[in-house]
Structure formats: C-alpha cells, structure tokens
Amino acid sequence: MRISRLSEFDDNSIIMADIVIVGAGPVGLTIAEECSRAGRKVVVVESGLEPESPEHSALNEVENVGELQTEAQIRKRIEFHGSQAKFWSPDVQPYGVRCRGLGGSTHAWAGKSAPFDALDFQARSWVPYSGWPVDHEHIVPYLLRAMKVLNLCPKAPPERFDNEGLHSFYWQFARSRVDRLDIMRFGREFLARRPANTDVLLDATVSRVGVNGDGSQFSRIDVVSVGGKRARIEATICVLAAGGIENARLLLASTDVFSQGIGNHYDVVGRFLMDHVAARVGRIPTDRMAALTKFFGFYGVHHENRAHMFAHGLALTAAAQEREQISNAAVFFSTERAPDDPWVALKRLLRSRSDNVGRDVLSVAAGSGFIARGIGMKILSDHRTPKVFKDLIVNTAIMLSPNLVADEFQSRGLPHKLSGLRIEAICEQAPNPASRVSLSERKDKFGVPLAKIDWRISDLEYKTLLRIAELSHEALARAELPAPKLEPWVTERRTQDLVIIDMAHTLGTTRMSTSPKTGVVDLHCRVHGINNLYIAGGSVFPTSGHANPTLTILALAIRLADHLNTALREVRT
After folding, report:
1. Phi, psi at residue 297, to the nearest 5°?
2. The model's pTM
C-alpha cells in the first residue's frame, strides 16, 4: 500500500487504476480492501490528510436554508456536535457533521451500531416513498460480513422485554482492534493492515466527475490540492463514497455533458434528504435508576474469545407502527452527570475557569474515588501497558460489570458522578422529495458550488416521537419498572416545543430505485444510465430506519464490492 499527497505529483498528472474510490471513510476503505484483496488496483481519493486539519475542514462549508436556524437549535447543535469533531463549526456546517481525513466520519462517531429491521425494507402505506428494491433477507449475509469488519458480535442477548408494542432492541459499540480502549477509527485500522494493491491519495479534492460524450460511461475525475496542484484519475470503474451531502453535490456540479448534473434526468439527485430525529422523553432520578440500569443497561456477550458490549433499549414492534400509523423508532437510556461531578470540577480548576473555587475543590475532594479510578484507566490505556494485560482486564471487566465498563468507555476512561438516567427517543424520518441538497450560488475555493441544504421535518416524525414517549411510559409502568418523569412537551402533547437537530446521519440523497424516475442508483448502486459509475454509503438508502446506519451502510458496501469484482472479471474475459 502506498499513501501519498497530491502535492507530491507533477501538475496535471494522469493516474490510472482499475477502481477509483472517492472518499476514505469507512465505506470507501471497506470497498477498497474488499476489491484489493481480489487483486484489483485501487486508488482511494481523500480530500483531507491522515488527521483532520482546519484548512481541509473548511471545505465542509454548506449553505442552510431549511431547519436548524433557531437560536435553540443552534445552541443544541453546539452542545451535541461540538465535542465530537475536532474542527467542526456551526458556521461552516449549519447542517451535518463531516470529517475530511483518512477514516472519514469515524474521526467523530460514537461507534454505536445496530442492524435495520425487516420492516425498514418494506413498502408501508403510511410512510410515503417507503420500500427498497432489495429485501432484508438478501442483505443478511452482508450484514454478517459487515459485523466482522466492525468487530461486532453476530449474536445479540435474548429478548428481555415485550409490552405495549415495544420490544427489546440492542446496540453494540464497534471497538478498535488497535486500541482496546477506543472505538474503531477506520483510518488507524486501515493503516495497521496496509492492504496490497491500494494507493491512497490525500489532499485531493474532487472538482468534477467526467463522463464520455454521450454520457453512458464514467471517464475520469479531476482532483485538486489545497495548494492548487491538479491531476486527473482515469479508471475502469468509479465509486463515489463521499457521504450524503458530497455524493449529491458532485453529481449536480458535474455539468460538462448533462446541464442538470449526472444521473439527474428526472430531478431526483439530492432529493429525499433524511436524518434521524431525536428528543428527550423523560428522566429517572438516581434513587430510582438502579432497577432500570440493571434491566436496560449494558450486557456482556462472549464470542470467539472476546467479550462484546450490548446496550439494551426498546423499539416499536411492526404491529405497533402499523396500528399507530407511525414510523420506526426506539428509546434508549443514558446517564446524566451530576452538577458536582469531580472530573468536571477538576477540569475547571486546572484551566483556571472556575467561578467558585471553593465549591470545585470540595467536589474534587469528595470525589477522590472517581479520580483514582480515572487514573487507573489512564494507566490501562497507556501504550506501554502490555497488550495481553489490557485484553485480559477489558474482556473480564465486560463480562463481570458491563455497565461500569460502558460508562468508562463512553467517558474515555473518566468515571463520572451521576445524577440520574435520561430516556431518549430516536425515530426514522420519512422520505420527502422537498427535503433536499441542491447547489448554492456561493462557491468553494476551487470554484465548485457549495451544497445548499433544505432539510425538512414532517408531522409524522413529531407524531412518532410523541407516541413512543407515551408508549414507553405505559410499558415500563405495566412491567412494574420505574416509569420516567416525562418531559413537559410529552405530558402536554406540545410537539411544537421540541427542539430538533440533525444527528449527523445524512441519508437518502442518491436513493436506490428500480427506475431513474424515482431514484438515482439501481439495485446494484450503479447510477442509472451510466455503466461504470457507482455510489456507496447512506445516500443510497430509500428509507432511514431508526438504527444508527453504519452497519447497514457497510453491508451494502461489501455487497457492492462483490459486484465490482465480478464486473471487472467479466471485462477482462
């Protein structure tokens, strides 16, 4: 494997490959590895460098004309997204969270993974534009392969709850194979394996996708570095794997042959923009949270000599969704830090930002046990600690006390004092052609129009969040478990009070369909009408489900890689 930067090449160089992949996130790197293993010469083009940088992050700028413009939404976005991506800014990204660098979105993700339900693939009369051209059973074998890529366990814990239209649902966290105390960062994992037959070209931003004169074949991509160095990459096959915003933007901005953009004969490119919609449902105070934490906390499962963590929540059954005429949704439980948390107090003191030194000193002193545990975790995460020792400790801890491990895992080894348990709801967003990515009149430094975001939330999402909030309260009470104190917006049924933000799960903008009139790619993820141009990632999803999308995204990526390997064999024979 060779990693280089475009600035190292002569200006206007021509680079050749069997497959060129745009985007070095989890999708692009997974396809590259699957295809290079079959002997294909693969070039992966990444706009950023190995780590994120301010200069490349500035290229994530979008114009926003839809949701997320109120002061409350902006404030909530800063609180939620601000700590995830190193160079994220609400001014540059008023919608979405994108990371330019080797590993893509895994620079900022939480590692949370779960499969889609069978119903998510089906056409539902109460969910407009629902239905995939492939079914759940067809995807299952690829899901199992994707679980291996993500270092996940294929067997979930048994169902523990089934009441009032809600049943057990489990999420896993993709754990790193390189750093046992971190989640999976695809750039780091890829560098550790260094697959053969793969070249990675960094600092190479795609400015145009080229097709031949009649528009039936991909011909090239044009790339440019932040310093202005330009090159052309020619390949037998091109895969756009640059995310839900950028995939659509590149197609729309490539107007040499088609004035309306590539794959856009029927004005579908960029439409059906979806994300997940979430809201806080209620809260359980510390004196009543033990029973819920034990029941809906984390579970350790042994598989292939490793321990895996599962988080237990509740999801709507298919019957409940149809009965209530709502979309798919789930509730999950998360801990809430106490105002006198010793780590937060210590951080304020060390940074000289305390507005009450005496109070913070007392918090640190009272929380000395938490501090000691945190120091122990830091020792465990040190690179000088033997790997065998780390594996033994981590795997044993997951099996004996998964809730403790999960808390420290999510807080990066800093155990916190808690004040309660929050109950959060997350729901599917129904496809809507008016919710879309188009092109702005403003342009980036390379002269390419910015993406213009018009994200729209429908009444169905608000109705779904309200009903799952009410149903979860009823279900917990009937099961004789502590029922949460519901948020005022639930008890008063005032969904207009909800402050909704994007969850950085950008989906649907190049959706899969059997017809170019209703989608951008066919069931093989090939752009309708173009023989050798493919799109990978969440942008091909016809519907969004409620589950974190990475597992299903990678299942489709592996499926696409198999198709590409077969297509290249046929070309050569």
Report:
1. -85, -145
2. 0.88
